[in-house]
Amino acid sequence: QVQLVESGGGLVQAGGSLRLSCAASGRTFGSYTMGWFRQAPGKEREFVGAIEWSSVIIYYADSVKGRFTISRDNAKNTAYLQMNSLKPEDTAVYYCAAPVDLQGNTVVAGTLRTSWGQGTQVAVSS
Q: For the residues of 4-59, what is the DSSP string, one character each?
């Protein structure tokens, strides 16, 4: 299975920006649709968006559309989440996961399972 490590979280004021990275190990990362999720304290995990392997199709949740941008560099085995115009309600632990589908569903197919990173904390102050 692919192994994922997120980085780039931190504390930022409302209106600010952060760029999260998701570094993957394994040669199959480039063929996977990769997703970003977040979980705020006391809330269920929320699907933020996903990018398919060629970066042609990218999906965003309505809550982040127009503010967040997902990209990937398969040569570097890394995916990114650029977050602009951050709001206090964006405060959460952010996770990357792969493979997923473009609706954020996890994969169970034979021995293939969705892998998750450990998460990175994003805090937005008002």
A: EEEE--EEEETT--EEEEEEEESTTGGGS-EEEEEE-TTS--EEEEEE-TTSS-EE
Bridge partners for 60 per DSSP: 49
Residue 126, CA distances (Å) to 11, 67, 81 in order: 11, 17, 21
Residue 69 pairs with which residues in a beta bridge?
82
Distance CA 72, CA 9 (A): 17
- Residue 10's pLDDT is what? 97
CA 15 to CA 32: how far, in whole Å? 32
| pLDDT per position as a tens digit, 11-57 | 999 999 999 999 999 778 889 999 999 999 999 999 999 999 999 99
Question: Who wins on pLDDT, 113 or 5?
Answer: 5
